[in-house]
Design a protein that fits this description.
The protein has 469 residues and is an alpha/beta fold. It has three domains: 4-261, 3-Layer(aba) Sandwich (Rossmann fold), CATH 3.40.50; 327-411, Up-down Bundle (Four Helix Bundle (Hemerythrin (Met), subunit A)); 421-468, no CATH class. The chain has helices at residues 39-57, 73-82, 86-103, 119-131, 160-166, 205-216, 231-246, 282-288, 291-300, 311-326, 339-360, 365-384, 389-405, 421-436, 440-452, and strands at residues 4-7, 12-15, 23-28, 61-66, 135-138, 141-144, 181-186, 201-203, 221-227, 251-257, 260-263, 269-271, 307-309, 455-460, 463-468. It has a four-stranded parallel β-sheet with strand order 4-3-9-10, covered by helices on one side. Strands 5-6-7-8 form a four-stranded antiparallel β-sheet. Strands 12-11-13 form a three-stranded mixed β-sheet. The relative contact order is 0.11. The structure holds one RNA strand of 74 nucleotides.
RNA sequence: GGCGACGUAGCCAAGUGGUAAGGCAGAGGUCUGCAAAACCUCCAUCACGGGUUCGAAUCCCGUCGUCGCCUCCA
């Protein structure tokens, strides 16, 4: 059974078939690096990281390209405001992004092209479009003539003529038609510029992606991804440019994630965005929560639907993470045969099938995590029944494998308490003596004090264990 | 106004014609000196109104509501 994947282009779920057997060419739109990335950007990156990991789990070799838009109006604006060089400014945010990739446990893309390193290809693509009559030069600008593209609007499902009436596009004298969009912008004084047949300037936003894709992956790719706010005009324009230049279908599957939304104190729900100012940066989030919490949030909601970020979802996913971690606690018994062992193995195997069925169904993360929780219960039940040894280890290994496919790390937090272990053990021993002497008030005090320091004590039949909160 | 997505328990959600997965929260229980964790049990008829069908959360029509895009945006 093939993976079922929703395709924005067709508006339906389709069986996934690659251009080449077992190989996937995937391009995901990255951020415009003029500002610190927020968790909405992280959500998008996480969605495609999960998709990539699952494709790899299913045996595909994935070529994953992600761009950086490192020259555009906003970057120039901000650089001017701060009196800095725009290229240097962008460079800083790109470095930040690479750091986030590590912090969020994202698989690094196989290539990270930038607009500024794709100039030759951009210029030659624009040249081709002019030669083929799809673009025209005007005062050093170059525009794409939308009406030369017969099926323009097919991705966003819009009619060219319907768009015109509703358009609030500021009229630009140099455009032949208000729908036309810029491929190349003539440089204004003080702006970074590159040479071109139409004079010094810089590329429009959409053309860079087309050029990078053709350069890095070829004229046809399997998956083109990004946030659903990019469907129009960005991706629509990419299709128009690319297909007008190559006469080949551009991307087979257009995959778009829903937006992360914020619930305001007034209860209003709005898209998280830089322009609205209602965002939480990735760094701020990670200062207070493990990356797994964000990943679980993303997994818990359909990737195409909006995800509301508020204190409730945060707390809920903190708890989910704790529960997942409970499955990784070591065995306490040594039973390696019998009914409990067989039940464990059977439940784990069934849960793995459930996991695959869920992910095959357009990457249903909620279903996939449900399968994970089936495994959690099976492992904890088996542990309580005294199951240990190889069977328990094998079950945990399967659980671990599946969590890794989802990109979850499930690492116990050691925070800044490295080396504290022996001291904590000593306190536990002291507390055990107090308990033996029925000095419960003192024993509880010790436990509370440790809890305040982030150390959780749990008394079990086998003695007391501890972990970082 | 146009295009698109969506509306399942207090909350997040699975489900694509045969009488509702999972998680959080809540209630009760086992264990414990107590607590925590874990485990067990309980907790919905699917926005509303029509229709198709032996049978619908699932298909069709309508209504209401939410969000996104139509302008830079993951």
């Amino acid at each position: 059974m093939a993976i079922q994947m929703f395709n924005t282009l067709s508006g339906t779920v389709e069986p996934f078939q690659t251009l080449e057997p077992q190989r996937v060419k995937m391009y995901v739109c990255g951020p415009t690096v003029y500002n610190t990335a927020h968790i909405g950007h992280a959500m998008s990156a996480l969605v495609f990281d999960i998709i990539r990991r699952y494709l790899q789990y299913r045996g595909y070799q994935v070529q994953h390209v992600q761009n950086f838009t490192d020259v555009d109006d906003k970057i120039i604006q901000r650089a001017n405001a701060e009196g800095r060089d725009p290229i240097v400014l962008a460079e800083g945010y790109i470095a930040d992004w690479h750091r986030h990739v590590g912090d969020l446990n994202l698989l690094p893309a196989t290539a990270y092209p930038r607009a500024t390193t794709t100039m030759n290809e951009i210029v030659s693509l624009i040249t081709t479009l002019i030669e083929r009559g799809h673009a025209y030069e005007a005062d050093g600008d170059v525009y794409f003539r939308v009406r030369t593209d017969a099926d323009y609007g097919k991705l966003s499902h819009r009619q060219v003529d319907a768009m015109r009436t509703g358009a609030r596009i500021a009229p630009d004298e140099r455009k032949d038609d208000p729908l036309d969009f810029a491929l190349w912008k003539a440089a204004k004084p003080g702006e970074p510029a590159w040479p071109s047949p139409w004079g010094a300037g810089r590329p429009g936003w959409h053309i860079e992606c087309s050029a990078m894709i053709i350069k890095e992956l070829g004229p046809q790719i399997d998956i083109h991804g990004g946030g659903n706010d990019l469907i129009f005009p960005h991706h629509e324009n990419e299709i128009a440019q690319s297909e007008s230049a190559t006469d080949q279908p551009f991307a087979r599957y257009w995959v778009h994630n829903g937006m992360l939304q914020m619930r305001s104190s007034a209860g209003e729900i709005e898209k998280m965005s830089k322009s609205l100012g209602n965002f939480v940066t990735i760094d701020d989030f990670l200062a207070d929560h493990p990356a797994d919490v964000l990943r679980l949030m993303v997994l818990g909601s359909p990737y195409r639907a909006p995800l509301v970020y508020d204190a409730g979802t945060l707390a809920e996913n903190e708890r989910k993470l704790e529960r997942l971690m409970s499955a990784l606690r070591p065995a306490t018994g040594t039973t390696s045969s019998g009914a409990a062992v067989e039940t464990l193995a059977a439940t784990i195997a069934q849960a793995q099938r459930n996991f695959e069925a869920a992910m095959d169904n357009d990457f249903n993360g909620a279903g996939a995590t449900a399968a994970l929780f089936e495994m959690v219960r099976a492992l904890n039940t088996a542990r309580d029944a005294g199951v240990g040894g190889e069977p328990f280890g094998a079950a945990q290994a399967t659980f671990r494998q599946i969590t890794e496919v989802l990109g979850l790390q499930l690492e116990a937090q050691t925070s800044d308490g490295e080396g504290a272990g022996p001291f904590i053990e000593l306190l536990i021993k002291t507390r055990a003596d107090l308990r033996k002497a029925k000095q419960f008030a003192l024993a509880d005090h010790l436990r509370n004090e440790l809890a305040a320091l982030g150390v959780i004590l749990e008394d079990g039949p086998q003695g007391t264990t501890w972990r970082w909160k």
